[in-house]
User: Which sequence fits this backbone?
């Protein structure tokens, strides 16, 4: 009975705000010279990285939602659960940027990304559960290697944060690259589905 | 003459912003160690609780609006009245979190939740008034035990805030749980209605 | 060629954000007792007033837009002009509240409301210009007594701000009440129009 | 497979937030007299200018998107790339306003505008690439003199920021005026297209 349109609209709104309020952590410096901008460079770096992550989530969310034919209460709450973890990204982004990537802040950043990835995985499982093992999403995901690889990489990023934070940084970039490479699974399945129907 | 779509879009926008700006109360600490995160734990707790309340309101609002066939001026203003009280939740959430649940802050938090619940009740009554006692919403709500129970619980939470704030906290969790348990009333009615039509 | 839907969606977004970020001026007090809330009472009062004004604008905007059949460049920019003045309301609301209604802050508050009213008037004229004197909006507005009365009242409110700010305050409330009383003009015309068509 | 509607909704959301949070840089002064407003005049000036730029982008984005018949992954990421640069405008606007147009702040302001213009250009090229050289957008743009002129003007504005910042200011106003003059290219092509179809 619930419409897909409104859950998408609400998610769009929340993600649009998350991606935009992150920029508020780039606090306008009081001085007006280039030197005053220097301390902001790590904040800018963490902003750029988080911007890409949120954009990837928006993109994937869009694709996954297209396979949803009826929204159940479970899907709604799985989606809210995902939004909760994503809503914490501006905080962890600001902390990691302001403190120039201390161990603790990188640990928190990676942990929140891990929980968001888990929430996304749960959202997919909830959709598949209500739409059947032969649904478009179930077929498109297959074993969901990308999703599982991301979670393992985040775990590595969490571990490395105690020793060398730059390793964690490299790992975050690798995860982003994995997802930025176009993923045709769902698009293909949707197309095939349309053809056969 | 007024369309349901735009009132939903506006409400979605306001709720998406409320749920997201609450996280701004989680102020990025200046220090970069785990110890610097400790003072934020009560703020995080109040954020989590309020996130769940807003999510519940969004979910219920979505269901109630689906029963609306024509938006009157009364429904519009009843909705604005609800949004007004919900818009104060980020403030009360921040206050209760920053002050580690003092009596006054818990009192305010519960009072705003009570007024939001009353506003929601008024919204439902306004819809029923304009759509008739045999409308989908009127039948689905019945005596609206959940709504009335919530209001009584908030009153208890307000009272207990003067003595033991942790009792108020438990009461808030109980209200959240009551609403998180799936409520099939409206969905059922809408389905039945579709079948008979 | 431009669609009404997207101009409405953008306006909804901007108004939803304006109405919600105003609440950020209610800064969470450091103390946790009721006494710490006292200084916020004028801020709360100005927030409530501005919330009602934005809600009235959203409501009226919704009605006026329903009479638009094609969006011209002129309508788009007249709408942006209106949003510009409305976007300043959180600032003037915060200033008037934080300074407990000094002459200067009340003057600014009234001036921004006046410019918003003028911008709204221009928007209506632009729509009528492109849709013809016999269009739904032109007939519904007639001489637009409410719009003109508001502008005169704002001018009075600006003048009185130099002598007695409480007179300005009463004038603002009068304007709000004028608009809160249901205005059936456009709804009636749209209904009639549907009947004849 | 991706729908144009959701990319438009997300862009609307982000632009609505960008245009509105910029006003938060107009920090409410502590004093309540007109003299306390004086330091805010340059901030207000930069806000007005940036408001117009974002409004122009929204307007143009709306037009360009109307020519899109299918959204590819490339279009999506080109759009995200544009939003990234636009999301930095509140920061550069705040900096340029708070520091009364120092060389460095004007340089940054112009640079971000330049990158946004380049991103917009890339978005157009990406759409044309996927829709063909005979598509509506390709024909409407022609040699895109306005786009190229803007980029050259921004380069001039960046250069002049080292010598005379008021020259940069004049250049920004010229760019805004160029775009404010109604551009009928896409509207015409869309109309012609409808006629022939």
Assistant:
């Amino acid at each position: 009975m619930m419409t897909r349109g409104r859950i998408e609209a609400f998610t769009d709104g929340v993600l649009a705000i998350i991606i935009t309020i992150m920029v508020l952590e780039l606090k306008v410096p009081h001085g007006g010279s280039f030197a005053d901008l220097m301390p902001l460079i790590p904040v800018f770096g963490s902003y750029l990285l988080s911007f890409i992550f949120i954009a990837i989530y928006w993109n994937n969310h869009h694709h996954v939602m297209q396979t949803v034919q009826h929204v159940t209460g479970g899907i709604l709450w799985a989606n809210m659960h995902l939004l909760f973890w994503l809503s914490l990204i501006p905080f962890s982004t600001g902390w990691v940027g302001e403190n120039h990537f201390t161990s603790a802040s990188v640990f928190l950043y990676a942990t929140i990304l891990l929980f968001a990835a888990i929430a996304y995985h749960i959202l997919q499982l909830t959709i598949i559960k209500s739409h059947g093992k032969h649904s478009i999403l179930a077929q498109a995901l297959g074993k969901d290697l990308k999703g599982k690889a991301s979670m393992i990489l985040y775990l590595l990023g969490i571990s490395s944060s105690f020793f060398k934070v730059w390793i964690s940084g490299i790992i975050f970039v690798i995860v982003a690259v994995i997802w930025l490479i176009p993923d045709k699974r769902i698009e293909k399945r949707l197309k095939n589905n349309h053809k056969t129907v």
